[in-house]
Amino acid sequence: MVNNNKSELNLVPSLGIYTTIAIVVGAVIGSGIFKKPALMASQLGSPELLLLIWVVAGIITLFGALTNAEVAGMLTETGGQYIFFQKMYGELVAYLYGWGIFAVIQTGSIASITYIFAEYTEFFIQFPRFSNEIEKSFSINLPFIGSFFPLHNIGVKLVTIIVITLLTMINYYGVKFGGRVSALFTVMKVLAILTLVYFAFVFSNGSFNHFVIESSSFTNKPEYLLTGFIAVFSGAFWAYDGWNNITYIAGEVKRPQRTIPIALGVGTLIIIAVYLLINLAYMYVLPVELMSKSTLVAADVANQSIGALGAAFVSAAVMISTFGTSNGTIMVSARVYFAMSRRKMFFNAIGNVHPKFKTPANALILQCVWSCVLVLSGTFDILTDMLIFVSWIFYALGAFGVFVLRKKMPDHPRPYKVFGYPYIPAIFVIFASFFVVLTIYEDISSYQSGNSQIVDSLFGLILVAIGLPLYWFYKRRNGKENY
Fold this sequence. Notes:
The protein is mainly α.
């Protein structure tokens, strides 16, 4: 662990506009766009509605990014949303957000994304496995959730842990180095997706008629459409998630008041364009009926376009994409715990800056250790699913905070003011709130009908609430109410 005098060492602004945009794009485009479209096609069954969902989800995400950009231009300290919530609503909301980020939201994402990287690595290298008997002899039983087997897919898990550790060390040795890695892999993943789009439209036997042919199971009854829309929007928003990660490292961005708003706007537009192109390519090659039955839609499209090399190409593309996304998530997320520690609301050592590399070294190490624990436990996918909707509660609070700060801090300089105020922020807040309410309703309905063993959204709230005793501990230890 790194020790230093916190008052003497601070993080250094070293990231320019190009790297910042690359981090925005790289933090969002991961494995979701290669896997989610097939599931979404089965849930909705209409190509026109499916494309509409991607457009609407993209526009809502853009509205959120533009709204977030106003606050990011005002408050340029490292810590992002944690700092924002502290100014908007006080220490309690900020702490619960930071706790959720550490406990599951970001560490679970790191585990999940990197695990997918390791899974696709098996296309080229087969990893060893224990027998079923040995796997079952070591199990973890969690109340309400079920049993997990730490030794299941142990080879994949060990590779996941190695990659998480490697990427942590890359970012340990400097944010500029980590930023360059993110920029490189962002360019590589976008080029890989555009190459797949090119293959699909030029070399396959696809048809533009696929854009209007509905699945035979498609129904336009309101009750089915409502359920389908909730499920499909969840998938789309998962693929778009991560757009606000750049705010976590605001203190290490050059001219953050200008750079971060531009990066959020430009980066989100790039993501929307890439997502629409790849979905058009999927639909051009496969009618929505076949898309809905595909387990790996990107691989199926590549196989029909370039033959036997298709699976290898897509596996490599997913590896590139997830490696870059994991790197970006590791880089930015540690800054939240760093900011919490600097405000005496987390372990003291986590707020230290490495004297040579000027990075939050201890925060990175702690994040690495906990992410690896989640990998071994095998709980990360379930835990992150439970907290998707919790993330959207914080998104809604963050956007509403623009109204709060305009009232609380009317004279604070705002290098960027959200376009279309108050309508753009209001639309985002209303949509996010509606999405959260519908998700809870759908979870409860699924539980009551016996399709689920637990109400995911409720359990997600419980996981966040676990942070309350820690909050009270730090408040009591520090002996004062405001920082």
